[in-house]
Each structure stands twice: as C-alpha cells, then as structure tokens.
UniProtKB/TrEMBL annotation:
GO CC terms of this entry: late endosome
Organism: Heterocephalus glaber (Naked mole rat)
Compartments it resides in: Late endosome
Keyword terms: Endosome, Guanine-nucleotide releasing factor
Lineage, opening ranks: Eukaryota, Metazoa, Chordata, Craniata, Vertebrata
PROSITE patterns with a match to the protein in the record: DENN (PS50211)
Record family assignment: Belongs to the DENND10 family.
UniProt GO molecular function: guanyl-nucleotide exchange factor activity; small GTPase binding
Membrane-spanning parts: none
UDENN domain boundaries: 1-286
InterPro entries recorded: FAM45 (IPR042431), Tripartite_DENN (IPR037516)
Protein name: Protein FAM45A isoform X3
C-alpha cells in the first residue's frame, strides 16, 4: 500500500496561478516549480480568462508533450480578500489522465486561495498531496489521492480517443501532437516515436490503415462514401471482438472476457488492439 501511495504522489508535475485583474489584464502570477515559456503560453491560451467572449469555463483539461494539464477557473466574490482580482485559474500539470481527481484537487486549491489570497497557503496543500497524497481541512475540504482510480478514469468514458483533422502538412513534423498521423495526400501512416512500443502494428492495424488510405485516394468516392467504408470496417472489428465478450448478470451490458481472449492465442499486437478497443468502449470489468 505504501509503495502504491508513493507512486501516486509522483504523478504531479506542477501547479500554477493565472489572474485577471480589475483592469482586464490576464497575468501568469506564480508557479511551482518553474515552467517553460511554451507551456506557460499554452496554458494562458487554454484558460478562458483571455477569451474575448467572456464565457467562463469552470474546468478544462488537455494533453501537451505527453503530460496532462487541468485548469479550474473561478470568479472572485466581493467577500474575498482578493480585491484587485476578478477571476483566477488554478493550473495543475501531471503525468496521468484523471479529470475527476484533479478537478476535485483544484477546487480545494481555489477555495484556499479565495480565503487567504496567498500562494503560500495554496502551496502547503499542494506539497501535502505531493508528498503524502492527502490534504485535510475542515474549512476547504479534504482530498485523498488514492480515492481516485486511474483505471476508472479511462473506463468511465471520459476519454475514448482523440481524432483531429489538419490541412497544414507541417503537423507531420510535430510528433508531440499525435500518436498516429495519417497523411491522405501521400498515402502514408506515421507513428510517433514515443507511441511505437504501445502501437506495434499487426495484421488488423494494417488492414484498417490500408482501407482508410485506399478509400480516401479513390477519385470516384465522395467524402460520405469514405466515411461509410470506415463505418463498415469499424462494424467488422466489433464483430471480431464479440466472441470474447459476455453479458453481465443484469443483462444490460456486454463486457470483455479477458480469459477467452487470451485462450485464443492471437498475435500480441492483435490481442493488445482488441483489449484497448474494449477499454475504449467501456467493456472492461471495473
């Protein structure tokens, strides 16, 4: 248990504070430890305080260079000691994906900052979680890191995979932005160096990739036909997964039978692909 808790506390990378003052200026006020200018500028853009439309997004998260960032933004009430600040954002960076965990922690840090108006008090709570995995306060609430299971964060459906389209080929030179890059114009599929180990291609991967490229380069096919081809292939993949699934006792949900999958003795890349497909579709037993 102690080893597990120690490992969990090593997931945090940093904490930062962004403020919007009564003059409308948005400033990066403080962080621990120091951060790069590139990450700082990214987080300033991602927090809603610089938006001209003035829409308040209480919580946002994303990934940058294999690390995750979590941003909670609040409006400062008149009763707060922060008299020259109208809004502020607390930023956490971490190695793991767990929106629920970091939303809870940033909410506590926000309450601490609203009460004391000093990063010092906020830092005390951050260090407590960083070193012990827990911070406790009757006034601001308690946070216990081990209460938030990383596996449930993925399986709860908070993330099912990101797909983005680009028209600028310069993106291909930014492997930090993708795991897999499909270049339809040149009929090429590129896997980012950091993702190669977890994305070793098997027969099934190659079939999918070839279908996408061949369908997209067919001059006689419209965009809707390309989409239909991909949809049919997706349905076929789910058919491959069906023999390794079972219905739970309530009869309402199918889950992966991992033992059945392993007994099939599929190639490692194919087994890994089907396992992660089941995870993405919330078919793993929690």
């Amino acid at each position: 248990m102690a080893a597990a808790e120690a490992g969990d506390t090593q997931l945090l990378l940093g904490v930062g504070l962004i403020e919007k003052d009564t003059n409308g200026e948005v400033l990066w006020v403080w962080c621990y430890p120091s951060t790069t200018a590139a990450l700082r500028n990214l987080l300033l853009r991602k927090c809603c305080l610089t938006d001209e439309n003035k829409l308040l997004h209480p919580f946002v998260f994303g990934q940058y260079r294999r690390s995750w960032f979590y941003i909670t933004t609040v409006e400062v009430p008149d009763s707060s000691v922060l008299k020259k600040v109208t809004h502020f954002s607390i930023v956490l960076t971490a190695k793991d994906f767990n929106p629920e965990k970091y939303a809870a922690f940033t909410r506590i840090l926000c309450r601490v900052y609203l009460k004391h108006g000093s990063p010092v008090k906020m830092m005390e709570s951050y260090i407590a979680v960083l070193t012990k995995g827990i911070c406790q306060s009757e006034e601001n609430g308690s946070f216990l890191s081990k209460d938030f299971d990383a596996r449930k964060a993925y399986l709860a459906g908070s993330i099912k995979g990101y797909v983005a389209g680009f028209v600028d080929l310069e993106v291909s030179n930014r492997p930090d932005l993708y795991d897999v890059f499909v270049n339809l114009a040149d009929s090429e599929i590129t896997i980012a160096p950091l993702a190669k180990e977890s994305m070793t291609m098997g027969k099934l991967h190659k079939e999918i990739g070839q279908l996408i490229v061949q369908s997209a380069e067919d001059p006689d096919k419209s965009d809707s036909q390309v989409i239909q081809d991909i949809a049919l292939k997706t349905k076929e993949i789910f058919t491959n997964l069906a023999p390794f699934s079972e219905v739970l006792d309530d009869g309402r949900k199918r889950v992966l039978n991992l033992q059945a999958l392993k007994q099939k003795r599929l190639p490692p890349a194919t087994e890994n692909f089907l396992y992660h497909l089941a995870a993405a579709e919330q078919m793993l037993k929690i």
